Amino acid sequence: MATLETISSIDTAPRHPIRLVANRTGLTVDLIRAWEKRYHVVEPARSDTKRRLYSDYDIERLRLIRIAKHNGRRLVDVAPMSLEALRDVVSEDSRFDAAQNNQAEVYRPSWSNPLESTDTQDSVDAMLFAIQTMDQHRFDHLLQEGLVKQALPVYLETVIGPLLREIGESTRLGKLRIAHEHMATAHLRTFIGALRFRETFTGSEPKIVITTPTGQLHELGALMIAALVSVDGWLPVYLGPNTPADEIAACAMQSGARAVSLSLTYPADDPRIPTELTRLRSQLDQKIPLFVGGSAAAHHQELIARLGLQSPLSLNGLRQSLNELRDRGFRLQSA
Amino acid sequence: MATLETISSIDTAPRHPIRLVANRTGLTVDLIRAWEKRYHVVEPARSDTKRRLYSDYDIERLRLIRIAKHNGRRLVDVAPMSLEALRDVVSEDSRFDAAQNNQAEVYRPSWSNPLESTDTQDSVDAMLFAIQTMDQHRFDHLLQEGLVKQALPVYLETVIGPLLREIGESTRLGKLRIAHEHMATAHLRTFIGALRFRETFTGSEPKIVITTPTGQLHELGALMIAALVSVDGWLPVYLGPNTPADEIAACAMQSGARAVSLSLTYPADDPRIPTELTRLRSQLDQKIPLFVGGSAAAHHQELIARLGLQSPLSLNGLRQSLNELRDRGFRLQSA
DNA sequence: GCAATGTTGTCCCACTTTTGTCCAGACAAA
DNA sequence: TTTGTCTGGACAAAAGTGGGACAACATTGC
């Protein structure tokens, strides 16, 4: 899939001005220059008039260094590290960090073998088997393991998404009991819910309200989105499932959110959906885009078009729209 | 166990600054230095500008010493110990602790302290304020902070329980919006859900199925119980809310659970409750006790009595019953 | 029971190193 | 013109270091 490549190999083309980099990383412009001056943390390309031009690669580096610093690393130590080394350090630190990690259990030597494309299907199958045998530890282990192997957005798209579909399908076909589905869902609710706390927030991130409208009780899709956008420098205001339109609008207003995202899954033809969407769109500031996703979004195409809502086709599409919105927004802010 | 071997080959390369060590161990920077000054607990290498540089080995030592201290050991005694000796001491202590656990709490003087009651009230108030202002970071910080201060069972009973009631009440009175309640609930769902993974499981724990019956959509009570029992050496099989009686019974059978616990909150007078409870009791092996708790349990007193269900009055009551059951079971098992 | 003594977490000081912010003057972009 | 970026340097806040003081508490000896 194209998605895989675009996400995993980071673009090194220089194109971002320093202000945008500052906004995305949460660092100040001065600081970025100071780091460059003192430790050559990043050495951006220059325009023909000597303006710095940063690549996505640079931005990723800076973000990682910022997190490493937050974890107690010294700039001197992390500055010369490669992106991979930084990733390792950061993930190691955040695994150990937080007084949460009471005891051992860590130091796992297992992921030496790289991931192949068929692996994800295997991985999903293994999880389904763990669910069927009600082996919670194994299930949890598989979830954690898969997550370490790849970036969160890829993981959500290639593992968690398919897993959810398989669980639904298997339950419908009677291959899994409702009890199995319940257990798996409850487990995933905790797991995905915790994902967004892997990121460090600066407080300057734009906010996005994420929920499902009245009648939509399945929250895992919305929760995945909350985890996803937190990777890209948004702060999700997550409201859980089944939130009335008025409340969503009120929440967006109070929190000063820059976007709203709804997830529709089941029931796909709930008669309340048109009412709620219309109501929400009218109560919401016109400048705030309203994203509608989930498997049931396809059932409401004309409605979505009529109301002028955004309906990205994949998690990746949503990501891109939000990235654009975020960067555009920052320009306005500073102007 | 596998963990031991992997840990025993700990890197002794000095590379971590003191701040990071503080983060990882939960000790303060001052304290780490004081320990070094007084007892040479660790003797870190130095950078060329005399900054301390700790190795993974040092960190592991400090972490173990911290646990040993927490268990009541004196610093003087543990300071000169080798890593292996420390491990032995710590694991011995925690085993002893676990055995004593149940009574130990009652004797702690801090609970009878009158300050305590206002303390937790303050803490709950602070959380409510964070919810009202939609300050997710603050809310999360308060939750984590409170948890550090006291044992999990106490925390659940004195902070989380009251907090849930206050949120419900405030929403009913209009002091909080539904959106606030949703946000708080979603957040708590993740937080409480993660609590049970703080424990390390050996695989030999007796299992207990935890859920809510059909019609009961609020899961936080059940989730609290899952976290609670995992502290006491049970392995919760958590099914989320709204599980049909047949499925609960099937799950108990497949997983070989030794007990089942249901949480009833809202609606208190749902007509499905008697049907479901009766059905579940009849399908479940008579040797498996069925616990029924939650605020709505009081509405079904005669039913509970008639079916011979257990209905502990508090989390603590449930704990005690389960402890007895577990110990009785263990005796049988070994006899 | 009480005083003396030991233990231990926290804080303060004076000093050094590291790191974040600010400024001035030149130039580029809008 | 106004705003933003660039360079180089200055400055100050933050964090680390060694040394020591001190209060809270536990233990010991009488």
Distance between the termini of chain A: 39 Å
- Under CATH, the homologous superfamily of the largest domain in chain A reads Cobalamin-binding domain
What CATH architecture of the largest domain in chain A would you give?
Answer: 3-Layer(aba) Sandwich
Main CATH class of the largest domain in chain A: Alpha Beta
Biggest sheet statistics of chain A: 4 strands, parallel
Q: Strand share of the residues of chain A?
A: 5-15%
Helical/strand content category of chain A: alpha/beta
Helix content range of the residues of chain A, please?
A: 55-70%
Show the largest interface. Answer: A-B, 52 and 52 residues
Order of helices and strands of chain A: HHHEEHHHHHHHEHEHEHEHH
Query: What does the average pLDDT of chain A come to?
Result: 83
Q: Please state the overall shape of chain A, judged from the principal axes of the Cα atoms.
A: globular
Report the total helices of chain A. 15
Strand tally of chain A is: 6
Q: What is the assembly state of the chains in this entry?
A: homodimer
Quick structural overview:
The structure is a homodimer of 335-residue chains. Chain A has 335 residues and is α/β, with parallel strands linked by helices.
